[in-house]
Amino acid sequence: MTNAEFCVTREKHLDHMVKVVPFIVCAYAIQCYFISKVDTVDIAANGLFFLGGCLVFMIMGFIIYDLTHTVTFENEKFTIEVKWLKYSKTFTYFDITNVEISEAGQSFATLTLTTKDGKKMGFYFVDEADKIKTWLEQKRIPQLRSAA
Questions:
Q1: Confidence of residue 145 (pLDDT cuts 50, 70, 90)
Q2: 22-38 burial, b for 16+ CB within 10 Å, e for fewer?
Q3: Contact present, 99 and 111 (Cβ < 8 Å)
């Protein structure tokens, strides 16, 4: 076990996907119907299979990202881990110079962290991004005071 205080979750985005995907698939089915009536069957079938494959890969990509990209916040550092790529990177809170969220007050949003070397890290579909931003800023305050 780690001494993690909390982890970034993306459950609200997954809940949103469960609600939205049926409408997307329905819109795709309606599109397939109209395209098959307008165009020749051979050309329409190839295009629709391609679009259907892209739709499946897009939905799978969102789900894989939500389930395998974890960010763990601990007392002195935070760790980014992508499980299926065996990637892991650790940063201290003092490395962060700026914390931004895409839309305040939303159920999930993009959290963007800027480090001292100018690198921007985006964490997409983060639950309660406002609270995480506040927590990160409070975590940095003692370290900024000790550096001054």
A1: low
A2: eeeeeeeeeebeeeeee
A3: yes
Q: What is the pLDDT of residue 56?
A: 94
Contact yes or no for 7/70 (Cβ under 8 A): yes
Q: Tell me which DSSP letter residue 94 carries.
A: G
Tokens of 53: 């494959």
How many Cα atoms occupy the beta-carbon half-sphere of 41 within 13 Å? 0
Q: What does the block give as tokens for 108?
A: 């999930």
Return phi, psi of residue 78, to 5°: -135, 150
Q: What is the pTM of this model?
A: 0.73
Relative orientation angle of helices 11-38 and 41-68, to the nearest 10 degrees: 180
State both tokens at 123: 């964490």
Q: Who's near 101: CB < 8 A, 6+ residues apart?
A: 109, 110, 111, 112, 129, 130, 133
Cα-flanking dihedrals φ and ψ of residue 15, to 5°?
Answer: -60, -40
